[in-house]
TrEMBL record:
Pfam family, one: DUF1330
Name of the molecule in the record: DUF1330 domain-containing protein
Residue ranges annotated for the DUF1330 domain, each copy included: 3-95
Transmembrane feature ranges: none
Length: 98
């Protein structure tokens, strides 16, 4: 049962701190069996009023592993580095339509 996490960067106020966060976040994704299906991809709005500039799509073997990644000590440490440097939107969902 595959799961996905969509990440939308909303605002980056400290590019240097955000760059320091990225490898920490990537290591946490890998440590929790996740992978990047797309990273920093340009978004092309097709319908509605959602107009993100860039999107990242993470894939995990299950929604439980995605949740475990987000709540993990590794990703909490990455989020601490990102704190005050960038605001993101993240949403996880079951990719099987479950």
């Amino acid at each position: 049962m595959v799961a996905y996490v969509i990440v939308e960067p909303m605002e980056v106020s400290d590019a240097e701190a955000f760059q320091a966060y990225r490898p920490l976040g990537a290591a946490a994704v890998k440590a929790h069996q996740g992978l990047y299906a797309a990273r920093g991809a340009d978004a092309v709005p097709l319908e509605g009023d959602w107009t993100p500039q860039k999107l990242t799509l993470l894939q995990f073997p299950s929604l439980d592993l995605a949740r475990g990644w987000y709540d993990s000590p590794e990703y909490r440490a990455a989020r601490a580095v990102r704190a005050g440097a960038a605001r993101l939107r993240l949403v996880a969902f079951d990719g099987t339509g479950g």
